[in-house]
Design brief:
By secondary structure, this protein is of the alpha+beta class. It has seven helices and four strands. A four-stranded mixed beta sheet has the order 3-2-1-4. α1 packs across α2.
């Protein structure tokens, strides 16, 4: 699905009495799964009752969560649900939505920062280069077992034709990989002392 242009507002979804959902942007009927996908993509939408024009987005989003939970995609622990239910009618009820929203925003930011940190940590490290080399060696080995590859590769035989074509200095790559692994092993042993 394409993203809505900035400032164009949320996509209007009409819910009919027969429980069918109609996407006014694409002029097509959709399912709750489509709405879940739109949510994951960051698409803004508003669900309205087709007859009364009442905003029922909250109810539909809650229904999507219930269906996800029923499929075994449980994220809401029983204790959390009990605590949440207990807060209905409590004097603190008015504060709960803002607190939950702020907590989820904080969680999302932390998740993005952690992901960026992990990606950045390995981007220019020896591990990234080793991973690339391992992948190239794996692909070369896998191509030997595909139709048209080497029929019976042996440890003493030369590199598979696909591997030789992909990289002329594959012997040098293997030697460099072994040397890098040896250096890393030495570092690990020094850290263990």
């Amino acid at each position: 699905m394409k993203k809505a242009a900035p400032g164009s507002g949320p996509v209007i979804i009409k819910k009919y009495a027969n429980r069918r959902l109609y996407n006014t942007e694409t002029s097509s009927y959709i399912t709750l799964e489509h709405l879940a996908a739109m949510t994951r993509e960051g698409r803004d939408f508003k669900v309205v009752d087709a007859k009364t024009e009442e905003d029922i987005t909250h109810n539909v989003l809650t229904q999507i969560i219930m269906e996800e939970e029923a499929r075994g995609q449980t994220m809401l622990p029983v204790n959390f649900l009990r605590q949440l239910i207990a807060l209905y009618g409590d004097s603190m009820q008015a504060m709960v939505p803002g607190y939950l929203e702020a907590s989820m925003d904080s969680f999302r930011r932390n998740q993005e920062q952690f992901k960026s940190a992990v990606e950045g940590a390995f981007a220019n490290s020896p591990f990234a280069e080793i991973a690339k080399r391992n992948m190239a060696m794996f692909e070369a080995a896998a191509s030997a077992f595909q139709p048209g590859g080497a029929a019976n590769p042996t440890p003493t035989a030369g590199p598979a034709p696909a591997a030789a074509a992909a990289s002329e200095g594959s012997g040098d790559d293997v030697s460099a990989l072994k040397a890098e692994l040896a250096r890393l092993q030495e570092k690990i042993e020094k850290l263990g002392k």
